[in-house]
Amino acid sequence: MKVAVIPARGGSKRIPGKNIRDFCGKPMIAWSIEAARASGCFDEVIVSTDDEKIAEVARQLGAAVPFMRPEHLSDDYTGTLPVIRHAVEWFVGAGHVVDLACCIYATAPFIMPADIQEGEKRLQSAGCSFAFSVTSYAFPIQRALRLADGGRVEMMHPGQFATRSQDLEEAWHDAGQFYWGTAEAWLEERMIFGRDSIGIPIPRYRVQDVDTHEDWESAEYMFEALRARARNG
User: Fold this and answer.
1) Which domain of life is it from (predicted)?
2) What region does 48 belong to: left with phi over 0, alpha with psi -120 to 50, or beta?
């Protein structure tokens, strides 16, 4: 079977209640649940949470909450890998044969069903452990700066000062939307950012971390702009 696992713990400190806070007319987590269901890729779409309010909203939106996440996997320091491993282990323990699992973040309102479908397709065809969303940096990272004492500027890579931007290698980063993986890869907690993974490119205008209030506001502006463009054809 193929399962979508949406991690959504309670207790967010920077944006309280962000997983179920209203985002452009729906609870934030609704956009991830709806995209997962619309993709048609999954036998089960579940939410892994330790919070009863989140669990109730998830059920109302059509996701399953077959277990409550244990406390030791619900603190500020728990990473994604052990959370998805726990979910896969629960399905296996319930007698299911899990082939693939896809982690979809609860704060990914720009996720599209077609991207999820493409991730599954590329994972299967490449025979790798993971396939996940990536996007390109808007500016060459080789010309990044740091502000030292007193605001003095230093190049992180001084040797690139004279290199033209167009001659530098394009760099990519995790887009923070979805992560397809084989059951074995999740259970073994293999490293996602490595040669055994495939990147699924997402355009920058559909990528926004939502970790701070500034992030949230930026995401709302971007989302409304995309909706307006869609309405206007």
Assistant:
1) Bacteria
2) beta
Number of structural domains in the chain: 1
Which CATH number fits the domain that encloses residue 197? 3.90.550.10
Averaged pLDDT for residues 54-65: 98
Strands (E), the chain: 2-7, 22-23, 26-27, 44-48, 100-104, 130-136, 145-147, 153-155, 172-182, 197-201
Distance CA 231, CA 233 (A): 6
69 in Cβ contact with 49 (< 8 Å): yes
| Strand 145-147, strand 26-27: pairing | unpaired
pLDDT number for residue 103? 98
pLDDT digit string (tens) for 168-214? 999 999 999 999 999 999 999 999 999 999 999 999 999 999 999 99
Query: Pairing mode, if any, of strands 44-48 and 100-104?
Result: unpaired
Domain range enclosing 69: 2-231
Adjacent-strand bridge partners of 5: 46, 103
pTM of the full predicted structure? 0.95
Q: Please give the Cα distance from 90 to 67 (Å, whole number).
A: 8
CA–CA dist 16, 214 (Å, integer): 14
Calpha distance 68→50 (Å, rounded): 5
